[in-house]
Write a structure and sequence with these properties.
alpha+beta, single chain, 30% helix, flat
């Protein structure tokens, strides 16, 4: 049995309040509001304990540092802002992927990442462009023109 220390409570509080997965640096910064003397080694140690217990999970986003979140029944769909690098959980719950898989395949878990600009970054980019849409980035799949968030 593990002890319920102040740093562990701080880490759980931070992850419980987070609307999306957090990096270790984000966890450390937020945890200091609850436990000012918490250090990076303590965060790593407690994440390892919580991962082993199955109460949190590691979220791997290609090309990004690992992120962590409380295990809940949430959607495997995530939005990654290409400007500010924030990650947002998208609603919708589990999707049936059986129809996408070849016969005989057994899915254990899946995640889908949508990349683009969050509302705040989109608004900032629009202000910078002074209302001009201009050329869209390569790989853009949006079907409509937007003038704001």
């Amino acid at each position: 049995m593990t002890r319920n220390t102040e740093p562990r409570r701080a880490l759980r509080e931070v992850l419980d309040r987070a609307p999306a997965p957090l990096t270790i640096e984000q966890i450390l910064h937020a945890a200091r509001a609850f436990s000012p003397r918490i250090g990076i080694a303590t965060v790593y140690r407690n994440l390892k304990i919580e991962l082993a217990a199955g109460s949190i999970r590691r979220v791997e986003i290609p090309g990004e540092p690992a992120r962590f979140e409380i295990v809940r029944d949430e959607s495997p769909f995530r939005f990654v802002c290409e400007s500010c690098r924030k990650v947002f959980n998208l609603g919708g719950g589990e999707r049936d992927v059986d129809d996408l898989l070849p016969e005989g395949f057994l899915p254990r878990r899946f995640e889908v990442f949508v990349y683009g600009l969050c509302a705040e970054c989109w608004a900032s980019a629009e202000r910078d462009r002074r209302g001009e849409i201009g050329n869209r980035p390569a790989g853009d799949v949006s079907k409509r023109e937007k003038t704001g968030p």
